[in-house]
Design brief:
Blueprint lengths: L4 H7 L2 H7 L21 E3 L24 H6 L3 H17 L4 E3 L22 H16 L4 E7 L12 E3 L2 H8 L1 H9 L4 E4 L3 E2 L2 E2 L4 H11 L5 E4 L7 H7 L12 H11 L4 H20 L9 H15 L1 E5 L10 E5 L24 H4 L5 E5 L10 H12 L3 E7 L18 H11 L5 E6 L15 E4 L7 H10 L12 E2 L17 E3 L8 H6 L4 E3 L10 E10 L9 E10 L5 E11 L10 E10 L4 E9 L5 E3 L4 E3 L3 E8 L7 E7 L14 H6 L1 H8 L12 H7 L4 H4 L9 H11 L1
Helix pairs in contact: 1-11, 2-10, 2-11, 4-5, 4-12, 5-7, 12-16, 19-22
Length: 738
């Protein structure tokens, strides 16, 4: 038997409503048994469920471990993400979970963030589109998604307290759009607020973020939950728009909330609003249509294998891959026997089964295995000698390198990008044998590859492949499947090249996002900085050509209705079928504000047979050409010349078309500190000001004088001797034209 939200709000006591907004223990919302309101069960699960058996991390019920977001994003395949989300939903239903806490869609501001394996990209379009697909798939099973961590949660260092100081433009263009996209297109049941402060205010108590932007600008009508332990002042967080505090043991925050209502410190209306959102969430969970068919573990394992195949990015290949059918292989590296397939922390899954490359590759090629190094990082000459001997006796070496488990976990950031010294020393020893080396990487975030990449015949970024990653690796290495992944983050030559490097992770309790909108490839391109491998890059086992780009304006820019359709023709010029990710970038220079040379605005993954051509159609709207204007407090598209480019990655864009847009001019609102030049640019306000000059004739200044004083606030300039205006004149015109 269900309940009516309005009836519960009317009949519930203040104490009952206060409990509703404070949760019940670690993983449940509070219910109101007297009024027939049940609890809602939440569980971790960005890439696999973690339903706790005890309170300890790692002690959870078995579930399929899909590749973490770092890998899934590299697929650039929303259809795949939707299928993975649906599988997560089916497992959630089977385990009695109503809301899955994921996906995480924070931007990869720095490659050092210890939780980057849980996040999609340095680019908000990629993160938003792929996360939307996952959320849609998950919620198609009657299970809610909870996108996190809202917002500017881009590091683990001091994550519970650090003050992220970010301009509104950078927030609007980089750190918020992925959330905006998911909320607008997939309508997640919940949004999780972050731990950190944002421009001085705890996110859990930030009304601008949780109410003005989330609910006002984006019309979000779901529930907002705290990250676990993010709430400091429950009353202030309620006022700001935080509906549910987690975790919670009854008897503290709920008592404070009830007392605040009784004393008049908190209005009952605010409490009722938050409680109504939790009740709406509960009602949605109760009314959801769910398929209770038992989960097919083998089917989900196969989907995890497919997802891992599409996640892998082939960075280099001199022809050694796919491995020749008769080649003898020295399989070297402890990761082949002890796979790293996920990161640490709250997303850690107790996998239903885990494949090993030492088994999956040995079933398809003649393999000699040698561990080569210790995961502890200690040197062992005997292991190196054994690996060299195996290499000398084989046709090709497959060397499995990667980051230790402890370097990629929630709560800790990395301090450098290098692989462990013992692994690089082993690579150097193996290179001396002269045998071709295929390096396979197991890592959840970018590593430094430039210093040693020339020692490899092929370099395959395997990321963290989930429980079936070793099956997928074998598929790709022998050529049964192609590596169709593409980078969603830039691989720099060195850590110091990253735009955020001098400011990460901050100091004295704050971190300045001084690079502004120049995050990732935007910053590398603006500085014209060489990279190891660019954003969007990836090879396959075939080749593609780009032949034609046509951009047609279908809206009416002069009226503000800007819509453009971009068509790109791509051809498979190789000898086997393969997938290509067609990427479209937009640039605007010059502009009134600093803008990146180009920004990803559309993409599509297409599979083509040998010799097949296809024209890919990609729509662009006004946001593809806009920047956030802090002067106008809105998105602005300026008149001017835009460049539309298309190709396989941000540094390889063979197709270019220029487009001139004539957009309606937007008046800049004048204020007390507006400059002389800004006043002169506003014909109406300037005319009104000139009418106040004695005699009504106005005045003029030589151009050389304007060049010097044009940047001076007019109200101050009016105090100079000889200026036929007063501060009072400026104030009077501001009152009517400001």
């Amino acid at each position: 038997m269900g309940f009516e939200v309005d009836d519960v709000i009317t009949q519930a006591t203040t104490e009952e409503l206060s409990k509703l907004v404070c949760g019940d223990g670690n993983w449940h919302t509070s219910g109101v048994e007297r009024l027939g309101v049940p609890r809602v069960h939440m569980a971790d699960g960005p890439h696999g469920l973690r339903v706790e058996e005890t309170a300890a991390l790692g002690e959870s019920r078995p579930a399929t471990c899909f590749p973490p977001a770092v890998g899934l994003a590299s697929s650039w395949n929303p259809a795949l993400l939707k299928r993975v989300g649906a599988a997560l939903g089916r497992e959630a239903v089977a385990q009695g979970v109503d809301v899955v806490l994921g996906p995480g869609i924070n931007i990869k501001r720095s490659p050092l963030c210890g939780r980057n394996f849980e996040y999609f990209s340095e680019d908000p379009l990629v993160a938003g589109r792929l996360a939307s697909a996952m959320v849609y798939g998950l919620q198609s099973q009657g299970v809610g998604a909870c996108v996190k961590h809202f917002a500017a949660n881009n590091q683990e260092t001091d994550r519970m307290r650090v003050d992220a100081r970010v301009s509104e433009r950078a927030l609007r263009e980089i750190y918020l759009p992925a959330f905006e996209t998911v909320i607008g297109s997939a309508h997640p049941w919940m949004v999780m607020c972050a731990y950190n402060r944002l421009n001085g205010t705890l996110v859990s108590e930030n009304p601008w973020l949780l109410t003005d932007v989330l609910r006002g600008d984006w019309d979000y009508d779901g529930a907002v939950v705290s990250d676990w332990g993010a709430v400091v002042d429950r009353v202030e967080s309620l006022v700001a728009g935080l509906d549910l505090e987690m975790p919670h043991e009854q008897g503290n925050s709920d008592v404070e909330v009830a007392a605040a209502v009784e004393s008049g410190q908190l209005s009952r209306e605010i409490l009722e609003l938050a409680a109504a959102r939790i009740l709406a969430l509960t009602e949605r969970a109760m009314d959801a249509v769910r398929d209770n068919t038992p989960v097919d573990e083998a089917e989900h394992h196969q989907l995890a294998r497919e997802a891992a195949r599409e996640s892998m990015v082939l960075l280099a290949n001199d022809g050694v891959l796919p491995l020749a059918p008769r080649a003898s292989v020295a399989l070297v590296g402890e990761f082949a026997r002890t796979p790293r397939f996920q990161g640490g922390g709250s997303s850690r899954v107790n996998a239903t089964r885990v494949e090993r490359l030492v088994d999956t590759l040995a079933s398809r090629r003649r393999v000699t295995f040698a561990p080569g190094f210790l995961l502890s990082g200690e040197s062992d000459d005997a292991l190196v000698d054994e690996a060299v001997a195996a290499a000398e006796a084989s046709d090709v070496v497959v060397l499995c390198l990667g980051l230790p488990d402890a370097e990629e976990t929630e709560g800790v950031d990395r301090t450098q990008l290098r692989l462990p010294d013992v692994q690089l020393a082993l690579l150097a020893e193996l290179a001396e044998t002269g045998k071709p080396i295929v390096v396979v990487l197991s890592n959840g975030a970018a590593v430094e590859v430039a210093p040693w990449a020339d020692q490899c015949a092929a370099l395959l970024e395997g990321w963290l492949g989930g429980q079936a990653g070793a099956l997928a690796l074998a598929d790709v290495l022998v050529g049964d499947a192609e590596p169709s992944g593409r980078l969603t983050e830039t691989l720099a030559l060195r850590l110091a090249d990253h735009p955020s490097s001098l400011m990460f992770p901050g100091e004295s309790g704050h971190v300045d996002y001084g690079e502004g909108v120049f995050v990732g490839y935007r910053g590398f391109d603006a500085a014209d900085r060489e990279v190891a491998f660019p954003f969007g890059f990836g090879l396959g086992y075939t080749t593609f050509s780009y032949d034609k780009l046509v951009a047609k304006v279908t809206g009416t820019p002069a009226s503000g209705d800007l819509r453009i359709v971009v068509q790109v023709t791509v051809t498979n010029t190789g000898e086997r079928a393969g997938s290509e990710v067609v990427q479209v970038y937009v640039g605007n220079a010059p502009a009134s504000v600093p803008r990146p040379p180009r920004e990803l605005r559309a993409f599509a993954k297409v599979r083509l047979e040998p010799g097949e051509s296809r024209t890919v159609t990609l729509p662009l709207d006004s946001r593809a050409f806009a920047f956030w204007s802090e002067v106008h407090d809105r998105w602005v598209v300026e008149s001017g010349l835009f460049t539309i480019e298309a190709g396989p990655n941000v540094r390889d864009l063979p197709l270019v078309q220029e487009l001139r847009l004539d957009m309606p001019a937007r008046r800049v609102r004048l204020h007390a500190e507006s400059t002389l030049a800004e006043w002169m640019a506003d014909d109406q306000a300037w005319a009104a000001l000139m009418a106040r000059v004695p005699g009504g004739q106005g005045f003029s200044l030589p151009e050389e004088v304007i060049a010097v004083v044009g940047g001076a606030p007019l109200r101050r300039f009016a105090k100079f001797p000889g200026i036929p205006l007063t501060a009072a004149d400026v104030d009077a015109v501001l009152a009517s034209h400001g």
